[in-house]
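A note from the maintainers: we've had questions about how concatenated examples are separated. There is no special marker in the raw files; a new sequence line simply starts the next protein. For clarity in this README we add a label.
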Amino acid sequence: MPSVRRMILGHVISDVCGKMNRRKNLQGDIMETPLKRCLSTFDITLLGVGHMIGAGIYVLTGTVAHDIAGPGVIVSFIIAGLVSLLAALCYAEFGAKVPKAGSAYIYTYVTIGEFWAFVIGWNIILEHMIGAASVARAWSGYVDSLSGGTISNFTNQLIGDRMKGNPLGHVPDPLAALLCIIYSLLLGLGVKCSATVNSFLTLINLIVMALVIGLGIYHADLKNWSSENYSFMPYGFHGVLAGAATCFYAFVGFDSIATSGEEVRDPCRSIPIATAFSMGIVTIGYVLVSGALTLMVPFWEINPSAALPEAFASKGIYWAKYVISVGALCGMTTTLFGSLFSLPRTLYSMATDGLLFGFLGRVNSRTQVPIVNLAISGVISALLALFFDLQHLVEFMSIGTFLAYTIVSASIIVLRYRPEKVLSPISTTSTSSTLTSPPTEGADSSSDGRSMTSAESEQLLNYCEDTGKLKFRYAWLAKFIGYCDPGTVVSMSITFYAIGCIALCTILILILQSLSLPTWSDYIMIVNLILFLSGCLFLIHAHKQTPSTGSFRVPLVPLVPAMSMFFNIGLMFHLSLLTWLRFLIWMLVGMFIYFFYGIHYSKEAGGPNSYSILMASSEAGRGAKWGSTLRVGQKSDKMPILDNDDLSH
């Protein structure tokens, strides 16, 4: 009897694990969507720029320069921009391959599995909700400062006495809540209309930035970067790195470009171009503004709360305060637009997959916008902006962003070395296909007017069958790693690499926080972990990648996404314990929704992935092993990791 119970329990656990590891199959034409494909490369480039250049350019620059890095804030922005670029490249490759709404959520669903996709999607929802609320709070505070505190004084007189002793410790902000509602109504008019408004406001912001840079350089004094008591890096390189961790938040928002993938006319071309241009514009803008600011005023005299207006006032340029205020309000409005634009589309994508409630997947037939999601997003963001202050909102936003960046980077490596069936452009136009990682050859061939010959198609298919197997020059590794399904060794290596990154970051943080000097044992552990991480990357590099299909691909794989993983894991270690506790509560709510609703109503339950991949009890007689995946059109027997064709070379 106990053995029967263990068998039943094992069967149940196996079935649940199999459902959690289901991967999304994209069927038929991946360009087909109920949303309106009307956005150009220009539109989504300004969408990304507007989402990234907001309160950061007018508030964050002065704070980091005064308190953390000094004039070295320039280097901090360069480092933060490069780290963000690593993640942005991964998003761009996925955006070109999977032109669907949902950004990191849909990419994880396609490559890793349903459970991790839900985790990422749930955290993206948190990121955009809090992002919208925090920007609305900053917008309200900026307007209040321009009015000399008139708005806050009125609010205090109206409801301040009634809120004494409230657990939040401050008076609600009705102006911030109203802003979220108004902008949600604007977004409901249609994606093209709202994108036009966003582009207009972003261009105004860029013009104001250009004016700030020009005036700043005109009034520059190189002595402000070097004096008898202070240097270019007064807080040392440690201060520059700490500033980079803070400046990283200025680049959060480029994923809104990928989120718009289902509304872009030519996503395979536009998303990579828009990502590259927006990251370049934002990085150059932040570097030049921070340079102009620290050249105009010594960093110790910068006013963190109003850095740019006070800097120009010290030079007698009082009118610049009003110009900068216009740019600041435009910038914060476009950042709010980016969050409220991305949030309902993530809800829509998860709902259409069955992981969230079905009514969230409805699209208005006239405006072709998920109106219900937009209304819910606006109301929840308004409530957060009404009751929570800016500091608590910003602290809670970052953890989901870092986690999403980390998993997307890992997904790039997994997808690049996993064997999948890739169809030629001819077959994709005549038949519908079921793909776990959909190719973009059809879009590519239609864009350049070239068709693939039958010989080229056969050569491509043959090469795809070798994906995930050892390269011929590394055949000797088969003696050590044995025989596995193609792609299995890569998946295990990236898992161990992530664990190694966590261990290395833990040791580095403990050493930096320790008052004593590192010991020899510390150095030995660091060297061993670096060798371990290098070994994981070498094992990945020793295998064959999937062939290029003409769409954008991240260069230097696995190095670039692996570096992105390491930096994002390291930045997560800078978060406070309270932030992790809040994150845990949010995740508990998400797990309740997934295991009591999403796992049962998932659209993938009716597809080939619905069969458990861990059915050890039913497959034991046929020699199935834990972790093996049975897929339509794929051989179920174990294949050697080294292809026989390689031996002929």
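[label: protein 2]
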Amino acid sequence: MTGPRRPDATRHGRDRRARRLSPPGGTPRVTGDRRPTTAVVGGGIAGLAAATALAERGVRVTLHERESVLGGRLAGGPTTLADGSAVTMSRGFHAFFRQYYNLRGLLRRTDPGLARLRALPDYPLRHSDGPHDSFRHVPRTPPWSALGFVALSPTFRPRDLARMNPVAALPLLDVRVPDVYERFDGVSAHDFLRSIRFPEAAHHLAFEVFSRSFFADPRELSAAEMVLMFHIYFLGSAEGLLFDVPGDPFPAALWDPLAGYLRGHGADLRTGTPVESVEPTPDGGFVVVTGEEERRYDTVVLALDTGGLRALVGRSPRLADAAWRERVARLRTAPPFLVSRLWLDRRVAADRPGFLGTSGYGTLDNVSVLERWESEAARWSARRGGSVVELHAYALPDGAVRDVERKRLLAQLHRVYPETRAARVVDERHEWRSDCPLFPVGGHGDRPTVRTGDPGLVVAGDLVRTDLPVALMERAATSGFLAANALLERWGVRGQTLWTVPDRGRGAALRLLARWGADRSAPVGGDTRGTP
């Protein structure tokens, strides 16, 4: 074996109340003459996490990825610009928050000090009507984080605070899983925020930005996910809301090193190899069918996006049981999103941040100036004297037209950074995708869990129900490790130690206050949605 020692037990965060989840005891590695085999279907974060935990412990892993590169929704591929520059185009900006303990643990396999990540100095937000918010000077430890944000934010004025309904907000002080889904899955994120009567500017600027991180309109998103987000990033964790970003394109910074690490542990990585079906065998194993072969494995990890999982299960009519397959068939995908990367012939103003969240600018959700933090973009900028700017539009409306949306994003960029009106776009690349999971109102019960009715079949991904306070990329990494742990437990092997943010409110007084509010607020869901 090669590579650094796996960091099973180290949190590497500042929050002393972070929760450690130890796996059942067992041997360090598989034993016996025959090593068990696992097919991991999907090479995104979840599949790579599962493959890593399994391969490190001696399981013979074969990973199948339909695309030619690893990384899933964080993949990137080479392209050549009109000026001859070789660059990498990806699916767009992603923030690596300090609360992402398990994802960061995965990356530490090849980068123990996380030197390939760079800290951005702020998380600025801007509304078209003028208000600006920043998290740079907000305290990191709750409840001072919430109080500090309100005190420092221009969107919270005294007369607005007087109109708020604080009782409706009290459940945010003590968020627990799965209780949060039992209470709030029946109401939309939009209606939950309305019930609190946040100031309009704050509603749009800060909180709607968070909900749209799920690539969904807040009217379509379960409030449970929104409430969980508050807990993870703001009211439950002392890590704060600042984040890191990879200093190089995703393949170089993240996935190429991890691929080498996996191969060093004997994993067989098969990119460009979509799986056509998975069929259980009479002896408890599985036959995985690709366009090239049919091969038997002892166990299978399904680490696919929503559409991929739905399609594969539809082609595999004997997997698990009928009820499970029906639930998978009902899973929904979030609306399409657009990432536009523009290479401009001149630089944006020197004081523009590396990342800016926006609201009120049509479909534009954020702007990144890549040369502020990515080495490849910085080299192009230094060579050509221009800027590399990336625009995101989440949750595009039904009937949106690609060319029209591209032009709209450019027009909004000109509003946000007026100096770009004089810039010429010397090259551009666009990604139009619709493969993020939708967490609709009332949909939590249909989401798959890691374990299925078949002990040899497990599921991983950010769509998976984990009953842990994790979301987005961290849910993908955590579910991947959980899937590996479920299989390792069968073989008597100790799995991966996991960490999460605290699984409840941060103090007895706050938890008591939250319970008091729950007793006095109207029930959430059904006809009471949006009730103050």
